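To: structure desk
From: M.T.
Subject: fold request, one chain
Message: Could you run this one when you get a chance? Sequence is below, nothing fancy, just the single chain.
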Amino acid sequence: MDMRIEDRVFVVTGAGSGIGREISLRFADAGARIAAVDLNGESAEETVSLLGGTGHFAATVDVSDGGSVVEMFQKVDAEYGRVDGLVNN
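Reply: Done. Structure tokens follow.
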């Protein structure tokens, strides 16, 4: 089984701080592209600024709102064309 995450696309919820931010940083260091999702958009943007490189983006999403989640996945699809993994933090 191929466990490399280089060039894979991950949606990380709660990416604005704590474990979600740390997972985003570690995955990006390994070459993954990150959609940093958080209820606090400023925190998600801050996480993206810490990731370095290109190919990452932040999204303000209330995961308790189905419409907001659908919009976010549409944005991810438009940006990357796929999702390889979800970290539902």
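Reply (cont.): Residues 13-87 form a domain with the Rossmann fold fold (CATH 3.40.50.720). Let me know if you need anything else for the meeting.
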